[in-house]
Amino acid sequence: MNDAGWMAEAARLGQGARGRTAPNPNVGCVIVGTHGNLVASGATAPGGRPHAEAVALDAAGDAARGATLYTTLEPCAHASDRGPTCAALIPAAGIERVVIAVEDPDRRTAGEGIAMLRAAGVAVTLVDSADARDSLSGYLTRVALGRPRITLKLALSIDGKIALPSGESKWITGEDARAHVHLERAHSDMILVGRGTYLADSPSLDVRLPGLEEWSPRRALLTRGAAVAGWETLASPHDVFRLHDVNDLLVEGGSGAATAFLAADLVDRILIYRAPILVGAGKSSFGYIGLDAIGDAHGRWVARDGARLGVDRLEIYERVA
């Protein structure tokens, strides 16, 4: 396997840790021996420590000597009272070459990790990996913009309705789509709904997938009303800028919360779970978002690969402007 293939595997490991490491990045790492064999692998541990490189090096032991280490993010270089930096651990373990997908934008490491490795005699190669960037998108967004990456989830009928006129919405989509939503929850640090949804549905917002129950994220309400025990409160969408320990925020609804975040231009990604049903008169997914001309709507979103989920269809859109 070539560098791109091994980095794709590291990105898969990092993606699997998403939602468990904030505010640290969810890094993936693999170590490959001199004969092209997989020696060890690892991802950032829950809570953010130990880092992926330390996990993989510990698993590799003496087999790390002379090997190549692939990591989705530049190894850390800033001192910590919780242990040595990864940029120091790697040469000490005898790694001869390090392949890095993304330079760390954190000013405490940015470029310093690479410089430390090269100063210790380790060959460093940078490769471009869309998979690695995607796996780290929550962390990269938070460092760049000072807020989490925000994903808006909507379950819609063919004609774009989220509920009947009565408000009934259970269940628009089938079991496969709902299971995918739970996986998205598991890979989010926080999940948010509006006060109306909380009062109407009393949602638990937990993860109910076998083996992932402990991955249920923190819960938040978008409300200017009284606080609710067990829930964090955001008075407005702009309060996301104080969520310094959240990399990925999932907004599940309802229409008021969706409208508020879109109107504030704070949505990075939209997941639409489209059911093959027609509702007709019913509740729309969101209201006025500040758009007054159709021409202004174009060029803002791009469709990514979707998926068939049982009878339903997942549509994925990412903001491009």
Description:
The protein has 9 helices and 15 strands. 25% of the residues lie in helices and 26% in strands. It is elongated, with a radius of gyration of 22 Å. The protein has 321 residues and is of the alpha/beta class. It has helices at residues 3-16, 52-60, 86-92, 112-119, 130-135, 137-145, 175-186, 195-201, 255-263; strands at 28-32, 38-43, 68-73, 97-102, 123-126, 149-156, 161-163, 190-194, 218-222, 232-234, 248-253, 269-274, 283-284, 301-309, 312-319. The strands form 3 sheets. The chain has an 8-stranded mixed beta sheet with strand order 10-9-8-11-6-12-15-14, with helices on both faces. Strands 2-1-3-4-5 form a 5-stranded mixed beta sheet, with helices on both faces. The longest helix is centred in the N-terminal third of the chain and has 14 residues, at 3-16.
Shape: elongated
Spatial strand arrangement across the major sheet: 10-9-8-11-6-12-15-14
Radius of gyration: 22 Å
What is the first-to-last residue Cα distance? 36 Å
Main β sheet profile: 8 strands, mixed
Order of helices and strands: HEEHEHEHEHHEEHEHEEEHEEEE
Total DSSP helices: 9
Low-confidence stretches: none
* DSSP summary, beta strand count: 15
Average pLDDT over all residues: 88
Share of helical residues: 25-40%
Specify the structural class.
alpha/beta
Strand content: 25-35%
Summary keywords:
alpha/beta; 8-stranded mixed beta sheet; elongated
Q: What's a quick, concise take on this entry?
A:
The protein is built from 9 helices and 15 strands. The longest helix has 14 residues, at 3-16.
